[in-house]
Write a structure and sequence with these properties.
Chain lengths: 149, 149
C-alpha cells in the first residue's frame, strides 16, 4: 500500500504575519506622531467653564494661541513672552497676514488661560491685540458638562 | 521503526498559532489606547474688542448707540469672594447677576454690556460673568480696559 505523503508547505511560501506586524507598527507610529504633534501646541490647563461657547472649528484661519499659566506667565508658540514681546509678535504676525491675504485679513488671538489666573495678567493680552488692530479675540473654555464640578 | 502517523501531523497543522494573534491583539490595543483622546473638548467664547478709556469709563459711543445706556457690570474681590455690581447695584451671587441680566436683556437686548473686572479677579469668575451675559441674550459685550496697563 502506498503511504500518503504529508502535504508540506513550500519552503518559499509567503509569510504574511511579519508583514502585517510591520505595517501595523508603521500605521501606529504615524498616527501617534501626528496625534502628539497636534497635542504639543495645547498646554494642559484648567480652563474656565462656560455654557455659551461654540465648538472649535479648524478653518485654517491664522491664529495666535496665548497660554496664560496660573502664575501669569504668558506662553506663545511654546516660548515664554512678556506682554511687550507678545504685542510685538502679534503686530508682526498681523502685518505678515495682511501682506499675504489682503488688508482686511485678521488673525485670531485665542486666550487659553488658567481659570485661577488674575485678570490683570489677561488684560494686557487684550490690550496688545487691540493696539495691533486685532479685534478677534477668543477665550478657550470647557463646557460645564464636560468638567466635573 | 514506527512510522509517524500522517493524521497526527495533519492535526498538528491545524493548531491555532497564538503568537501572531497576540502580536496583533497587542498592536490593536496600543493603537486604540494611543489614538483615544482623553482630553476634554475645548469650546470658544468669541469677543470683539473695543477701546475704553480711563478706568472703566466708556468712550466714544456712536450716537446711534448712545440711546442705549450701557449695562456696566463690575466685579470686585471682597473678603476673598467676588462681589458683582450691576449698574452700581451690588449683587451677592452670580445667580442674582444672571437674573438681573436676563431682565435687562428682555428690555433692551441690543444695549452694550461692559464688563469691568478688578485686576485681582480670577479669569474663571470673569468668564462666568461673560458667559452669563451671553446666555442672557446680550450680543454686544465688551471688556473694560485701562490704557495705562
Amino acid at each position: 500500500m502506498r503511504v500518503p505523503q504529508s502535504v508540506r508547505s513550500s519552503k518559499f511560501g509567503f509569510n504574511m504575519t511579519p508583514m502585517i506586524d510591520v505595517v501595523f507598527l508603521l500605521i501606529i507610529f504615524f498616527l501617534v506622531s501626528s496625534h502628539l504633534a497636534k497635542q504639543e501646541s495645547q498646554l494642559e490647563l484648567p480652563l474656565p467653564k462656560a455654557d455659551s461657547g461654540s465648538e472649535l472649528t479648524d478653518d485654517g484661519s491664522p491664529r495666535a494661541v496665548v497660554n496664560v499659566l496660573a502664575d501669569g506667565t504668558l506662553i506663545l508658540a511654546g516660548t515664554r513672552v512678556t506682554p511687550l514681546e507678545l504685542e510685538q509678535r502679534l503686530g508682526f504676525e498681523q502685518q505678515r497676514i495682511r501682506k499675504s491675504r489682503g488688508a482686511n485679513a485678521n488673525i485670531e488671538v485665542r486666550i487659553r488661560g488658567d481659570r485661577r489666573v488674575p485678570y490683570r495678567f489677561v488684560e494686557p493680552i487684550m490690550l496688545a491685540a487691540f493696539r495691533q488692530g486685532i479685534s478677534d479675540v477668543t477665550f478657550a473654555v470647557y463646557h460645564s458638562k464636560d468638567v466635573p464640578q | 521503526m514506527k512510522r509517524p502517523s500522517v493524521f497526527r501531523r495533519a492535526n498538528y497543522g491545524l493548531d491555532v498559532k497564538m503568537t501572531p494573534m497576540i502580536d496583533v491583539v497587542f498592536l490593536l490595543l496600543v493603537f486604540f489606547v494611543w489614538t483615544a483622546s482623553f482630553q476634554i473638548v475645548e469650546h470658544l467664547l468669541p469677543s470683539n474688542l473695543m477701546a475704553v478709556a480711563g478706568q472703566g469709563d466708556p468712550m466714544e459711543i456712536d450716537p446711534e448707540e448712545a440711546e442705549f445706556e450701557p449695562v456696566v457690570v463690575r466685579v470686585r474681590i471682597s473678603d476673598g469672594r467676588p462681589l458683582w455690581l450691576v449698574n452700581d447695584t451690588p449683587r451677592d451671587s452670580l445667580k442674582q447677576v444672571g437674573e438681573m441680566l436676563r431682565v435687562l436683556a428682555d428690555i433692551k437686548g441690543d444695549a452694550p454690556v461692559i464688563l469691568d473686572p478688578d485686576p485681582g479677579v480670577p479669569l474663571g469668575d470673569v468668564i462666568d460673568l461673560y458667559d452669563l451675559a451671553r446666555l442672557a441674550g446680550f450680543v454686544r459685550i465688551q471688556f473694560a480696559a485701562s490704557e495705562g496697563m
